[in-house]
Amino acid sequence: MLALARLTAAVLVVASVTGLAADAPPDRAFATARTVMGEHPEIWVGASIARGKYAVVVTGHAASTPPSLSTPPSLSTPGARAGAGLADVADSARRTVARVWGQADAVILVPATDEQAEVLASPSGVAGLAALADVDHVIVAPSGFGRLSPTGRRVVLAHELTHVATGAALSGDMPAWLVEGFADYVGYHGSGLTARAVAAELAAEVRSGTPPVALPGREAFRPGGPRLPQAYEEAWLACRYLADRYGEHALVALYRAARRHGITTALVETLGTDLAELTAAWRGYLRRELA
Predict the structure, then answer these.
(1) Which UniProt keywords are given for this protein, alphabetically ordered (predicted)?
(2) Is omega for the bond preceding 223 within 30 degrees of 0, making it cis?
(3) Closest to 80 measured CA to CA, from 45, 124, 46
């Protein structure tokens, strides 16, 4: 999940994404879209389906007949045109994920209302969020996502598609700071945004002399939490520090190792450090980047 408040700084900067991994056509994405639409068919009556190079975007709107997944969608309706535009953004976000992590399916569901998004995301909910990743697709919260800048939308989709690619929904024992921080690291990859722009709330705390003392735990990421923006910023800067210090490949290796063996063993195996040393180094990095 990526909180909506985190993206207010991403108003004017245009993302720059280069390079493309070897990828397969989105036929599997269509199969996924067909399956997830079938779970709540009442939401998708009259929906439009847009296909990018890799992404499939399903956009809900009022109509009397369901869409067909067997033929190319018509772009004659506003929903279809909006979906086509979002498919381009999703393609860009997916390329970013592929550069850092590897291939990822990109199935984006855009229901007509936030109430429908809540149904699709149940039991997690989408309050205060722009989008939410499920196991194999991303659910967009229309009102939150609609307030984002073009860069903010790409960042959000790259963040959530990272969760899909890494299987975050199935990794309940992973440390939250690594799961969310890594997704943010990928999301902001190539955006050109500075640490102070992205982490404005945390920067204010660091400048006031009250920096965090520990990496954020799972409770810190609960929607509506008093320091939710800071939790994401702390996690992002932890992963950014690891990439700056050890290299992006080492950050990816740490994530993969943590999925297999847990974070304690992964830190020793991949970086030769432990959580205490990482925390101390991260706190120093926050002061250098934000003070």
Answers:
(1) Signal
(2) no
(3) 46
The residue-averaged pLDDT of 25-32 equals: 80
In the predicted structure, residue 139 carries a pLDDT above the cut 50: yes
**Closest CA relative to residue 9, chosen from 188, 198, 180:** 198
Q: What is the dihedral of CA 47, 70, 54, 25, to 10 degrees?
A: 170
> Domains in the chain and their CATH numbers?
4-170 (3.30.2010.30), 176-290 (no CATH)
d(CA 158, CA 136): 14
What pLDDT shows up at residue 84? 75
Tokens at 71, concatenated: 């033929």
CA-CA distances (angstroms) from residue 79 to 58, 83, 84, 204?
9, 6, 9, 40
Q: For residues 29 and 35, what is the distance between their CA atoms, to the nearest angstrom?
A: 10
**pTM for the full predicted model:** 0.85
Secondary structure element (H or E) that encloses residue 230, with its range: helix 228-246
In angstroms, the CA 192 to CA 263 distance is: 29
Mean local confidence (pLDDT), 214-219: 96
Decide if pLDDT at 71 tops 80.
no
224 — pLDDT class (breaks 50, 70, 90): confident
- pLDDT of residue 66 exceeding 70, the answer is no
Residues 6+ apart with CB under 8 A from 131: 1, 2, 138, 139, 140, 141, 144, 145, 156, 157, 159, 160
Over its C-alpha atoms, the chain yields an Rg (Å, rounded) of 19
Give pLDDT, residue 215.
98
Question: Which of residues 226 and 156 earns the better pLDDT score?
Answer: 156
pLDDT for 170-179, tens place per residue? Answer: 877 899 999 9
- Strand, coil or helix: what is 144? helix
The DSSP result for 199-226, as a single string, is: THHHHHHHHTT---SS---GGGGSTT-T
